[in-house]
Amino acid sequence: MFGITEEFYKKYPNTTIRLTRALIRAAQWLDANDNANRPEAVKILSQFNYVGADYEVIANSMTGTFEYEKGDKRPVEDFNVFFRYNATYPYYSDAIWYLTQMRRWGQIAEDKSDEWYKELAAKVYRPDIYEKAALSLVDEALVKLQDFPDFESEDGFRDPQTHFIDNLVYNGKKPNDYINQFTIGLKQGDRI
Full-prediction pTM beyond 0.70? Predict the structure, then answer.
């Protein structure tokens, strides 16, 4: 996750596009050739001036193995995905999912309408910036257009999803319906 302020974007629009381009290229590099670049990324990240964690600790998740507890290591394909499956695209539905969790666990104290979630997501997630950056990379033949969502038909929402750990249907266009499915946590109409 990378964020900047609206003020920064307005003051430095070209820099913002360049930063977005760099993030897209880095994500693509991390996923390239069946994650072949991940060990090099782990080596860089494990340096003290970056993350500074042990190489093995970072490598567990970056290279497709996760240690659930001491001695319980299991392969987890796509534990971390950076570019595949449009992982870099700023879907409003992804932002809304985070907001539903914040509401569910009391970080958003008051009930909010579905429209509130959508409006806030649209203020923060900026597919217009992403599209400019991506298309500039396509124009320079650094990436392929088919590696991105169809920008002309994209509305910012993924199709309803069922792959989360809770096995509930999540539809970013109906955040309150999603929240109301849980047996624990705040729901629509609850107040702290």
Answer: yes
Q: Is the pLDDT score of 70 beyond 90?
A: no
Work out the number of other CB atoms within 10 angstroms of the CB of residue 122: 14
Q: Is the pLDDT of residue 164 over 90?
A: no
Q: What DSSP assignment string belongs to 163-192?
A: -STT---B-TT-HHHHHTT-SSS--TT---
List Cβ neighbours of 175 (8 Å cut-off, separation of 6 or more). Answer: 96, 97, 99, 100, 103, 114, 117
Instruction: Give the residue carrying structure tokens 């702290």.
Output: 192
Task: Categorize the per-residue pLDDT at 163 as very low, low, confident or very high, splitting at 50, 70 and 90.
Answer: confident
Mean local confidence (pLDDT), 163-172: 88
Find the mean pLDDT for residues 154-158.
Answer: 93
Other Cβ atoms within 10 Å of 120 Cβ, number: 16
Whether 155 contacts 167, CB under 8 Å: no
Domain ranges for the chain, please list them: 7-75, 89-179
Cα distances (Å, whole numbers) of residue 119 to 24, 92, 98, 143, 160: 25, 9, 14, 31, 19
- Say which residue the tokens 């964020």 belong to: 3
Taking the C-alpha atoms of residue 124 and residue 3, their distance in angstroms, rounded to an integer, is 8
Q: Which residues contact 68 (CB under 8 A, 6 or more apart)?
A: 74
